[in-house]
User: Which sequence fits this backbone?
């Protein structure tokens, strides 16, 4: 693997605008997106369908040519290139799709060899390379099968091998796991993680499944109505989502689920009606594991009862979440909350909207 | 056997060489016109597909002209087409009668239909495959040959089968310009003299030829499907 200087930029999108005359205003359009994807990272782009994320990823290899803006990949401005040169640059970027897009009339081996036609390799050399790639995705025994004989997960593995055949620096994944069941999804995700680690390939993942981002990505951008509304390290986004859309995506992938749902629980409502307050504590990696609850109870005479607790690992760091009811004197509760915040715990009071 | 056939087809057996000649003429016309029909139909069918809006070589002008010309040619009845094209036929073939004189109108009569069949076949090729090939840096020619034609082979074979069978139907009218063939045989020697055995012989041979064409087409389509 080549060493790259930290924060080197692989893909730089500058003020990308893409509209479609036929669909009129809104749907799938991209409105002034500026984004930088660093060399060697796995970057997620998340949004509901119609948010423009698939259009945005197609702008990265100019399958869709933006109306305005620049696309710079590995230092080359793709938007300025003539067709032939653009096709040469595209070979540095592999792409996989939700519907796999394997050639039904070609065997698995021929599918993987497809991008090698222009390389000038001998047929034997092409075959060896394709077989090596099939071994990497653990499908060597299916080399002579046709795509119709494969399961969805196997098809996507073949598509990954095919995308890797031209030794790309970047792999673009457009909803690559959306047509797969959860178990197959996680095996594909671990394969993507492996090729990122072992081959140093920069990966861009388009998805509407926040779980995919949580399991795979280091950084993420959230799109809504053609714009990037929030962007950052996956851990920070999970720990501290700012926008509504981010919040709903984060909650969709948290084992804690939608914390506000707790307020609907009849027993919780009863306690709240009697004057208790409900708080959500977030323990970031440094603060996780502190004996916060017992020390608050002891020092501030506040009774905390736990409604829900969970801890999860995101990008190798732990993120804990604790939902409690607090009963006690109002000033004691306020002091206890201050104490928690001083100790690096994020606290939010949950109220009925 | 000979006696049996003589009883069943008395007038055919009187001059069996007439039937043999007619069969050869029909096959000759079908082979020549069919060969050019395949070439031109593929060419224009592919052009329709790639120049259409959203195609890999989108070109509104080319598409519109091609689309209109194909519609025009397809709307002219074949007998009128023979008359309409007689001067062009003379320029290209040097004559406007006989087998040579009917091949040009046969091509004009069948290629536009096949172009539509090819266009429809290629429309059935998943757009995602074209997109995947584009993402690999494959240019327009590569996409046409390695994606469209390769993936569309079965559908094109089915379309070609239909068109060739239509073409055999068109050759039956070539008697108008003295090209002979089975149609001419049935009309000239059968219909005009009220000799039904000759008409039946023409029918049976035509059905056999069509069956062979259909079988070959089906086989190719089957071999190309995985």
Assistant:
């Amino acid at each position: 693997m080549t060493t790259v200087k930290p924060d080197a930029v692989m893909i730089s999108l500058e003020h990308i605008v893409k509209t479609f005359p036929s669909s009129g205003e809104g749907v799938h359009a991209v409105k002034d997106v500026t984004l930088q994807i660093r060399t060697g990272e796995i970057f997620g782009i998340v949004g509901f369908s119609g948010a423009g994320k698939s259009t945005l990823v197609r702008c990265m290899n100019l399958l869709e040519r933006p109306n305005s803006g620049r696309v710079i990949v590995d230092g080359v401005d793709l938007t300025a290139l003539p067709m032939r040169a653009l096709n040469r640059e595209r070979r540095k970027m592999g792409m996989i799709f939700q519907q796999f897009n394997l050639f039904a009339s070609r065997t698995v081996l021929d599918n993987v060899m497809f991008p090698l036609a222009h390389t000038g390799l001998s047929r034997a050399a092409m075959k060896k390379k394709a077989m090596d790639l099939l071994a990497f995705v653990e499908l060597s025994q299916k080399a002579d099968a046709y795509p119709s004989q494969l399961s969805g997960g196997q098809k996507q593995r073949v598509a990954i091998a095919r995308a890797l055949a031209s030794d790309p620096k970047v792999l673009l994944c457009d909803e690559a796991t959306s047509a797969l069941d959860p178990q197959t999804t996680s095996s594909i995700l671990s394969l993507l993680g492996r090729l990122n680690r072992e081959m140093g390939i920069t990966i861009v993942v388009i998805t509407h499944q926040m779980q995919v981002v949580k399991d795979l990505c280091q950084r993420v951008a959230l799109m809504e109505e053609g714009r990037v509304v929030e962007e950052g390290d996956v851990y920070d986004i999970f720990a501290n989502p700012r926008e509504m859309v981010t919040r709903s995506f984060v909650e969709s992938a948290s084992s804690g689920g939608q914390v506000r749902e707790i307020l609907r629980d009849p027993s919780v409502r009863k306690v709240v009606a009697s004057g208790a307050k409900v708080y959500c504590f977030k323990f970031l990696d440094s603060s996780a594991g502190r004996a916060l609850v017992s020390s608050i109870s002891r020092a501030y005479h506040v009774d905390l009862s736990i409604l829900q607790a969970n801890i999860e690992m995101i990008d190798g760091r732990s993120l804990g979440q604790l939902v409690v009811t607090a009963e006690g004197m109002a000033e004691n509760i306020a002091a206890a909350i201050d104490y928690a915040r001083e100790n690096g715990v994020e606290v939010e009071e949950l109220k009925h909207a | 056997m000979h006696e049996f056939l003589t009883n069943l087809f008395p007038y055919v057996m009187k001059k069996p060489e007439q039937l043999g000649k007619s069969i050869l003429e029909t096959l000759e016309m079908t082979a020549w016109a069919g060969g050019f029909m395949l070439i031109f139909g593929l060419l224009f069918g592919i052009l329709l597909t790639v120049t259409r809006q959203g195609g890999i070589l989108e070109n509104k002008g080319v598409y519109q002209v091609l689309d209109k010309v194909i519609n025009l040619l397809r709307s002219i009845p074949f007998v009128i087409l023979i008359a309409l094209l007689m001067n062009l036929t003379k320029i290209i073939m040097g004559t406007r009668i006989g087998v040579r004189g009917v091949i040009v109108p046969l091509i004009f009569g069948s290629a536009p239909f096949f172009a539509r069949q090819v266009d429809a076949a290629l429309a059935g090729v998943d757009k995602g495959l074209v997109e995947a090939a584009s993402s690999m840096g494959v240019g327009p020619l590569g996409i046409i040959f390695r994606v469209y034609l390769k993936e569309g082979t079965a559908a094109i074979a089915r379309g070609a089968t239909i068109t060739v069978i239509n073409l055999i139907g068109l050759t039956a009218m070539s008697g108008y310009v003295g090209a002979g063939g089975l149609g001419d045989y049935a009309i000239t020697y059968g219909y005009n003299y009220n000799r039904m055995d000759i008409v039946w012989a023409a029918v049976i041979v035509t059905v056999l030829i069509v069956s062979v064409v259909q079988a070959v087409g089906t086989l190719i389509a089957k071999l190309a499907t995985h």
